[in-house]
Sequence to fold (173 residues):
Amino acid sequence: MAIQPSTDKQAKKYKRFLSPGEQIITVTGVSPRYYLLLLPLYILFAFLLIGIPKLVHHMVERRAKLYILTNKRILVKDGIFSINITSASYDQIAHIRVDEPFFKKFFFDTGSVIVITTSGKKEESDEIILKNVGSPMEIKNMLESLISHRDKELPYEVRQEFFSEEHIPRLRM
Fold:
């Protein structure tokens, strides 16, 4: 499944997290493929009472984690009842790292995108981790494109280029 542009429903739902003039590029979360392929394993182990806590953890993580890329910054929404928002504008991003362990890459096509930000103080940095996202290299490429366009207003036509087949050949769940 290819990366999808944000919908009007998503724009309305997450409007309260945005600053004036900011527009959502895409909304993603924990890869459904990662979740669905582990589900039978946890159900199998549930009979031994080992898999139940892990199953609940993955179900909550799937609903609680949300990653929003806008034209100005990256937002991470974490939580269901108590919500924590972490954001970083693109000019604060020092570099981006991708972590794709063999097992997750081969079976789930998932990994983590680690965004290293600077705080403005020398030798201080923070990490924003987009954990278990589908096709993390494509997410990294999209972030780099958004960083290069950060000083410009992104018209609709430019936003659509992020979702074209030639820019992101295949993004699997």
Notes: The chain has one domain: 8-156. The first helix runs from residue 8 to 13. The domain at 8-156 is CATH 2.30.29.30 (PH-domain like). The CA atoms of residues 20 and 72 lie 11 Å apart.
